[in-house]
Amino acid sequence: MVINEYSLRETKHAKTKIAIANVFMKRLEKTRFDDISIRQICKSVEISEGTFFNYFPEKIDIINYYMHLMFLKIVFKARKDAPQGGYIPLINAFFAHLAELLRYNNIVYQLISLLIVQQEMPKTAVISNLERQIFFPGYKGIENIQPMLVDDFLRECLTGAVNNHELPKNIKIDDILVSLITILSGTLLAVKFSAVKDRSYHYMRQLRLLWDGLGAKWTTRER
User: Fold this and answer.
1) What is the pTM of this model?
2) Any idea where the domains of the chain sit in the sequence?
């Protein structure tokens, strides 16, 4: 479907939701999460505080929504790059595009700290096809990607890699998942104080070490 096939009410709702997220994330570039005022966000978007809470019951819900949007973008690009049917290449491509997205974005360090203090796992955000079309114009097919948590995506890829004989049958997927999440978040923290700040370089290096150590039948060979 295209945007003009939706009602004005649906379009306004989607655009307002995205506007809230964009304004909030822009402020997060220079302001601590706890110091961002909902009243200021509402003033910028020209909505009432009551309307704001209809979209996002809590401030953390905006973070969750934005992270799911970025997940859709990264997976969309990774699937275009990875050979069809290859799960380890898909994981590698996912990390490569994550690094590209975060190249000049220091918001990620606030996101990591927010996730650490959360008492429960984030919820999977609901993102309509209209919201995807507005946020990602020109990304044909992004509506076919299912929003999910990064953990679930990586677990799905690892299971596929085992079934596809890219990884040994006897590996413990939960253990490898922890390794991947450690690479994802730990590398970001380490690179912040590293002389070599190329996140993609460090991601690919850590992934090569992991795949080689597991005896994977497909590994990245970029140097």
Assistant:
1) 0.87
2) 3-214
